[in-house]
Design a protein that fits this description.
Chain B: Keywords: Cell inner membrane, Cell membrane, Membrane, Peptide transport, Protein transport, Transmembrane, Transmembrane helix, Transport. The structure holds 2 protein chains of 2 kinds. By secondary structure, chain A is α/β, with parallel strands linked by helices. Chain A has 24 helices and 24 strands. Chain A has an 8-stranded mixed beta sheet with strand order 6-7-8-3-9-10-12-11, sandwiched between helices. In chain A, strands 18-19-20-15-21-22-24-23 form an 8-stranded mixed beta sheet, with helices on both faces. In chain A, a hairpin with a 2-residue loop joins strand 23 and strand 24. The longest helix of chain A is centred in the N-terminal third of the chain and has 18 residues. By secondary structure, chain B is mainly alpha-helical. Chain B has one domain: MetI-like (MetI-like fold). Chain B has 13 helices and no strands. The longest helix of chain B is centred in the middle third of the chain and has 37 residues. Chain B starts with a helix and ends in an 8-residue tail after the last helix. The N terminus of chain B is likely disordered.
């Protein structure tokens, strides 16, 4: 069978700087090709080049054949007739990909009418059919809605509906689920699978998430520095990688399905700048298996197996990384788990409530409702312990965090930080507590003042709390987080993402705090960099005896670093407990769904998994359901409970009840189950 | 932020780079590395030197009148020629420059500082602070500045120029402060401000350390424009006879007088006007270079 899309030696450069170099790949009908790589590896440029969507300044060479027709250098008219018909695209951000001023149904109908000679009514009927196909409830009604009335997951479904409107031969998905929560991601991937079965299209799936590719793709292409470094079947690449970069990438992902705390194996350094590529293998400077021959010239793709090729001259010696027994990468010093003894409580939150008024009108502001962002949350954090606070967007985890950080009296309930109730704090005591509680934010570029040098950034907490000459401490701090003290004169933007986050961590550690609040500290980083920061956090905790409150939406990262985990849903805690207990046998239906939705970077297990798919979206926190907040989406409520049992869910809001030594769930019918 | 000797020695001993990597020093370095900055700074320094040291070498003072030379072209006796009254053009020009430079630079600095502080406080604290400051700036915006200055002119008698500077500055800051307020509100949302708050840094200090430096591009551009505006406003006020009062002179009064004789005695006009243009140009160069030096993402200053 001849390939639908055949890309040969595709190279793209912008003003002499190569962005993509010699990419060759082909997809057949019904096949899924995953392209994985870190940011800047050229995967998005590749897809834009294939679609012919590059800006005028780009120089494209090579060949892209769609159904045997050459696209590179084809006239614009021919490309336009291809796009959307023979080949379509699903973008990362569904909000900016839909026109805000047109109804969703009309936009899909337009996509139909551009390529098919049908009248308006027929196109609209087709649009409703498509919306139904991608699982939008009440499609004929929703077709009349505008994009802003849809949630992120629903918008992405609309995008998929538009992409399959003309039965294309190839669908290119550029990070289609990156902006979505994990349960919604599972829904959207399911829809994509369904759409593919229906149309028989080939899919090119561009992503940085190795878990998504494992379950979804047939073949994988790993890109590094603008070039494919390994191509092959999913099983070959995941279980028998022949390129040290792939090995490193797989070894640096925290796994939600593996207990115990082993240090991750980060890849040292950061990817080369495309303007200054090393003469030899671009990965050589970071490679643990580097030999002199690597730096002589760039290795071609060697045939290492059936349909499996890798760009490494030592591919025969590359062995896959097995958990716990790193073959290629030497594991850094092992971390140990601290037992939860009768240790001092560092942070205690009791019955925390936070509402926001919903106002309307500009001149006379009327209160038209209340957003119950946090509605009664309890947890505590002991000395030397890490509590992971997880939940999807809108679950109230960030509000909880700001309530703690503000150190102001809460609206209802109580917060006790380091033995002091925040409701009874004077200004002096508050400043004192700020010394002992520090925060690290998600985006290191936004949390470091761009106008300050690293020296000034690190000096700020020291000066604020009365240290007049911070010079020596700054050098200490920089070496503590693994940076060169001579970098103090630089500005934050001169550093890479991982280094910036290290600076933010150094600033948080400047005053030797006892409690560190981490707000999604690694979610803005690439996997290979993320692993280094996670390891750093782990070793710092052990060395300095810190306690972490770790807020994240990535459950795998939380399992890796936390001792205990609290799962939040719509402003309340659904389940809380010791990490291994919760991950191995979650009791709350929401936790079960959440855990079953995480894609695992393990193709065989991923294909065999049975997902618990949640229906619909998170209800609005301004109008939460009565009784149990999760009942509207609860698979148990829908399928397993009898009418009488359901009444309890509708009438009574469940409290967190202990199930075992350190695990509790807020469900009337909690039942432990293995889902990962 | 300079390092004490002791700390410098300590850092040297530790083998760390000796130059304090603090912002002040870095910006100064970047400023003087750019050709524009050096040129502008040099010309401005030369202007000051001329204005304040020049009278020492000139045989004439600005009050002297040479009754043997009325409206004479430049000569070894009178380097820039003389006016109709017999006054030495060189001496009066320098005297006028002293006044204009001080008035212009000070008024610009005061007004930009006022705009930055008022705008940043209003935007950072909001609530009552914001309402009061907005009310004051709105009030000043509707007052006709030129008229008020004209009416107040009898107060700016000899020796009263600081009052003149303050009044001038008072009418220059409102529009900028509104822009600053808006930018402060958006800057406040940045995580580095949150980080500083959670670190326990006092609000006023956050404003001066984080908010205002992050608006520095705007403020510097504004200050540079204000220098020109202030000098020109002062010049035009003086031209109409409201600004600097005789016997004191400023570039404005000189240009006003010179314009009448400019056609047949160009030296009475061109020296003054030329120096004014050069000064304003130098200030703009300095402003551009400063903006680049403050902006860490600017490539030109590296």
């Amino acid at each position: 069978m001849s390939p639908v899309l055949d890309v040969r030696d595709l190279s793209v450069s912008f003003g002499g700087v190569p962005a993509v170099r010699e990419v060759s790949c082909a997809v057949r009908r019904g096949e899924v090709l995953g392209i994985v790589g870190e940011s800047g590896s050229g995967k998005s440029v590749t897809s834009a080049a294939v679609m012919g969507l590059l800006p005028p300044g780009a120089r494209v060479t090579g060949s892209v054949r769609l159904h045997g027709r050459e696209l590179i250098g084809a006239p614009a008219r021919e490309l336009t007739s291809c796009r959307g018909k023979a080949m379509s695209m699903v973008f990362q951000d569904p909000l900016s990909a839909l026109t805000p001023v047109y109804r969703v149904g009309d936009q899909i109908a337009e996509a139909v009418r551009v390529h098919q000679r049908v009248d308006k009514e027929a196109a609209l009927v087709r649009a409703v059919q498509l919306l139904d196909l991608v699982g939008i409830p009440r499609p004929s009604e929703r077709a009349l809605a505008f994009p802003h009335e849809f949630s992120g997951g629903m918008r992405q479904r609309v995008m998929i509906a538009m992409a399959i409107a003309n039965d294309p031969g190839v669908i290119i998905c550029d990070e289609p689920t990156t902006a979505l929560d994990v349960t919604v991601q599972a829904q959207v991937l399911e829809v994509l699978k369904k759409a593919q079965q229906k149309t028989g299209a080939a899919i090119i799936m561009i992503t940085h998430d190795l878990g998504v590719v494992a379950g979804f793709a047939d073949r994988v292409l790993v890109m590094y520095a603008g070039r494919p470094v390994e191509v092959g079947g999913v099983d070959d690449v995941y279980y028998r990688p022949r390129m040290p970069y792939t090995v490193g990438l797989l070894g640096s992902i925290p796994r939600a399905d593996k207990g115990g705390r082993w240090p991750l194996t980060p890849i040292e350094g950061s990817p080369p700048s495309p303007a200054a590529l090393p003469p030899g293998c671009p990965f050589a400077p970071r490679c643990p298996m580097r030999i002199d021959a690597c730096e002589e010239r760039e290795p071609p793709l060697f045939e290492v197996g059936d349909g499996h090729r890798a760009a490494c001259i030592r591919w025969k010696e590359v062995a896959p990384y097995t958990l716990g027994v790193p073959a290629v990468y030497g594991a850094p010093g092992s971390a140990r788990r601290t037992p939860r003894r009768a240790q001092r409580t560092v942070l205690e939150v009791r019955g925390l409530v936070k509402d926001y008024p919903l106002l309307k009108g500009t001149l006379f502001r009327r209160r038209i409702g209340t957003v119950h962002a946090v509605a009664g949350v309890d947890f505590d954090l002991r000395e030397g312990e890490t509590l992971g606070l997880v939940g999807e967007s809108g679950s109230g985890k960030t509000t909880t965090l700001t309530q703690i950080l503000e150190l102001a009296p809460p609206q209802q309930g109580g917060i006790t930080v380091l033995g002091h109730d925040t409701a009874r704090l004077d200004a002096a005591r508050r400043t004192e507590i700020r010394r002992d509680m520090q925060v690290v934010f998600q985006d290191p570029l936004a949390s470091l003042d761009p106008r300050m040098t690293v020296h000034d950034i690190l000096a700020e907490p020291l000066r604020t709390h009365g240290q007049r000459r911070p010079g020596r401490r700054i050098a200490e701090l920089l070496s503590l987080v693994g940076l060169d003290p001579s970098h103090a004169a630089r500005y934050p933007q001169d550093f890479s993402g991982g280094q910036r986050q290290r600076i933010a961590i150094a600033r948080a550690l400047a005053l030797e705090p006892r409690l560190l609040v981490l707000d999604e500290p690694v979610s803005a980083l690439d996997v290979s960099i993320q692993a280094g920061v996670i390891n750093l956090l782990g070793s710092l905790r052990a060395r300095l005896g810190l306690s972490y409150l770790f807020v994240a939406h990535d459950l795998a990262v939380v399992r890796h670093i936390a001792d205990r985990v609290a799962v939040m849903y719509l402003g309340r805690i659904a389940e809380i407990g010791q990490v291994d207990a919760v991950y191995q046998a979650p009791a709350h239906p929401y936790t079960q769904a959440l855990l079953s939705a995480i894609p695992l970077p393990d193709p065989v297990r991923e294909r065999a998994r049975d997902r618990i798919l949640l229906e619909g979206d998170l209800p609005s926190p301004a109008d939460p359901p009565t009784g149990c907040r999760f009942r509207t989406r609860c698979p148990k409520f829908r399928a397993e409970l009898t009418g009488d049992e359901r009444r309890l869910c509708v009438d009574v809001e469940p409290e967190v009840r202990p199930l075992s030594a350190d695990q509790g769930a807020a469900c009337h019918y909690a039942e432990r189950r293995d889902v990962v | 932020m300079t390092l004490s000797e002791e700390e410098l020695a300590e850092e040297l001993r530790d083998g760390v780079v000796a130059g304090a990597p603090s912002r002040t020093r870095l910006i100064a370095g970047r400023f003087f590395r750019s050709g524009q900055g050096r040129l502008g700074f040099g010309v401005l320094a030369l202007m000051f030197l001329l204005a304040f040291a020049g009278p020492l070498v000139s045989p004439w003072s600005y009050l002297d009148k040479d009754f043997t030379a009325f409206l004479q072209p430049p000569s070894p006796d009178h380097w820039f020629g003389t006016l109709q009254t017999g006054a030495d053009v060189f001496a009066v020009t320098l005297r006028g420059m002293q006044k204009s430079l001080i008035v212009g630079l000070l008024a610009a600095l005061v007004s930009t500082a006022l705009a930055a502080v008022a705008g940043a406080f209003a935007g950072y604290f909001l609530g009552w602070t914001d309402r009061t400051l907005t009310w004051v700036s709105d009030l000043l915006l509707v007052l006709p500045a030129f008229l008020v200055l004209a009416i107040m002119s009898p107060l700016f008698g000899s020796g009263q120029w600081p009052l003149f500077v303050i009044t001038l500055a008072l009418f220059l800051w409102m529009v900028t402060s509104k822009v600053v307020r808006g930018m402060t509100i958006s800057t406040k949302e940045h995580e580095f401000i949150q980080a500083a708050r959670y670190m326990g840094v006092a609000p006023v200090r956050i404003i001066f350390r984080h908010v205002i430096p992050n608006l520095s591009s705007l403020l510097i551009v504004d200050a540079t424009l204000n220098v020109s505006t202030a000098i020109l406003t002062e010049t035009s006020l003086s031209y109409f006879g409201f600004g600097i009062q005789p016997p004191d002179v400023s570039l404005g009064t000189l240009i006003a007088d010179g314009s009448r004789t400019a056609v047949y005695a160009p030296w009475t006009f061109w020296f003054v006007a030329g120096l004014l243009v050069v000064t304003v140009l130098a200030v703009n160069l300095v402003g551009d270079a400063l903006r680049d030096a403050f902006d860490p993402s600017s490539k030109r200053a590296r």
